[in-house]
Structures are given as structure tokens and as C-alpha cells.
Design a protein that fits this description.
The strands form 2 sheets. Strands 2, 3, 4, 5, 7, 8, 9, 10, 11, 12, 13, 14 and 15 form a 13-stranded mixed sheet that branches. The protein has a two-stranded parallel sheet with strand order 1-6. The model has no long low-confidence stretch (mean pLDDT 95). It has 6 helices and 15 strands.
């Protein structure tokens, strides 16, 4: 990774231009106190009075008024159109976990692009914060302290197998694949251990469990994470 625009030793909040509220932002900042924005995500931060450490994107949607409120040395325009603003921001910052809001809901194509980015940036720990749920890419192994009857959905972004303890319907020996098999609305019998054999499984949990997920992902060592994709 090249020298990042921002290097944080703590979890980082990243705001996109999709559906998000001041309450969403305040909740994210509890776990990830430093804040950056992808393009027009800056609007929510400025409206909420939250200081932005950086604004990154192609700047095709941020307003001139918003740009004028951010110090020029914190504005980082990346003009290429081969990637989303979400990806532009992620590849130019370093943090143990990124809590991202404003990337779920709104336009479906933007939402799908955000899920695609979780897979493309599989070496990064990213938690998408939505209205009802959180979404993150399963690392090779993760133990989650969850109450019984907690909804756990597993959605494959490619062919992937896994193993589990603590799920009502175990996933052992099942090949998950888009268009073939997914794991919608499983539920827990207690604490859950998930192991997957490829960086292709999205985990969807109720939003109430963002704190333990952010905490656990931030503690993963480099060897406990997926390697970066080539290129």
C-alpha cells in the first residue's frame, strides 16, 4: 500500500453520500472517533458539526459550499472513474477497522457496489452500518459473542465453504454460491464460531451488535486477516 492520506491507529468512520442520519454518525463515532468522507458524504458531517480529517473522491457530487467549509489540505480529489468513491477512500487510508455509513440503502447499484468493494478490499476490516443491519466480510475465523436466537445471515459473493459452531443450522460441508445457495436468516444457539475458506462470505447481523464486531475485527492480527488481492 502506498503512503496513505490518513493513517489511524484507531477505527475510522467513513461517510458516504447514501442514506445516513446524524444519529447513525454519532453512533459510529463512539467506536471510530476520527471521521472522513467520500465525496458528498461530507455534507452529513458538516451538517452535524463533525470535523473531517479528509474528504476523498472525484468530487462530482460534493457541493461548492461544502468544499469551501473544509480546509484545502484536507480535500483530496482523485479524478479517475474506474472505481467508486468508497474504494478511492478505502485504498487511501489505513486503520484497523473502517466503520462505513451512507453506503447501504438509497440506489441499489451503489449498494451492490459497496458489497462488491468489501470483497475487492478483503484485506481491510470494514463494517457497513445500515438502518437495521451491519454487513462485513467474514475473516478466515471469527468468534462472535451473541445471545441465543440472534439472526445471522451469510451471503456468498462467490463459491465458498465454511464451518460453524453455535448456529441452529450448521454450515459445515455446504458449498455456498450466488444463484445456488445462500444462508439467509440463520439463528444462533449461543456464541458463534465462523470459519470460511475464501474471502467471499458476507455476514449480516442486526445493527445492535456493531460494538462487539468492530472490537473483534480491530483485534485481528495481520496473519488472521485475508491477504490483499493481487493488483
Amino acid at each position: 500500500m502506498k503512503t496513505p492520506i490518513l493513517n489511524s491507529s484507531d477505527p475510522l468512520t467513513l461517510i458516504g453520500g447514501g442514506e445516513a442520519t446524524p444519529e447513525d454518525l454519532k453512533e459510529a463515532l463512539v467506536f471510530a472517533p476520527q471521521c472522513i468522507a467520500a465525496d458528498s458524504g461530507a455534507h452529513l458531517a458538516l451538517e452535524t458539526g463533525v470535523e473531517l480529517a479528509a474528504v476523498i473522491g472525484d468530487f462530482d457530487s460534493i457541493s461548492d459550499a461544502a468544499r469551501a467549509q473544509v480546509a484545502s489540505d484536507r480535500l483530496h480529489r482523485i479524478a479517475e472513474q474506474n472505481s467508486t468513491d468508497f474504494d478511492k477512500a478505502l485504498r487511501n487510508v489505513s486503520a484497523p477497522v473502517v466503520v462505513a455509513l451512507g453506503f447501504l440503502g438509497g440506489q441499489i447499484d451503489h449498494e451492490l457496489a459497496s458489497l462488491h468493494t468489501l470483497v475487492m478490499r478483503c484485506d481491510r476490516a470494514i463494517v457497513l452500518l445500515g438502518k437495521c443491519d451491519i454487513v462485513f466480510l467474514c475473516p478466515p475465523s471469527l468468534r462472535l459473542p451473541l445471545p441465543k436466537e440472534t439472526r445471522v445471515s451469510l451471503f456468498p459473493m462467490g463459491s465458498v465453504r465454511g464451518r460453524s459452531n453455535g448456529l441452529h443450522w450448521p454450515i459445515d460441508d455446504i458449498e455456498f454460491q450466488p444463484g445456488v445457495r445462500s444462508g439467509t436468516s440463520n439463528k444462533t444457539t449461543g456464541d458463534v464460531l465462523l470459519e470460511v475458506d475464501a474471502p467471499l462470505m458476507l455476514c449480516i447481523l442486526p445493527r445492535a451488535f456493531i460494538q462487539p464486531v468492530v472490537s473483534l475485527l480491530s483485534q485481528l492480527s495481520e496473519t488472521e486477516r485475508w491477504p490483499a488481492r493481487a493488483g
